[in-house]
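User: I'll paste a sequence; please echo it back and then give the predicted structure.

Assistant: Echoing your sequence first, then the prediction.
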Amino acid sequence: MSREPSVRGHRTVRVRAVLSGRVQGVGFRFFAEEWAERLGVGGYARNLPDGRLEVVAEGPEPAVRDFLDAIRRGPRSAVVAGVDLHWEEPQGDRHFRIRY
């Protein structure tokens, strides 16, 4: 019987989201960082060379799902056309970073 890592009784999950649309720029990355800090989610956000944004989030499953809902909406200046999700094994990320 395997035990899944948990935080406060919730399963810890990690997801990589690749967003397309009008998502490049510092504004969206700082928006993601703000929501991650609010929800207690670790991970990172970075712009990809092809114009998409990669966001990795790790934490308690309810917080990660709330975080994903927030980034799907994005800041006012963004237009999220698509989100490609990849669920991954947790790696112990506790803080959220912006990568350049």
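Residues 1-7 have pLDDT under 50 and may be disordered. The radius of gyration is 13 Å.
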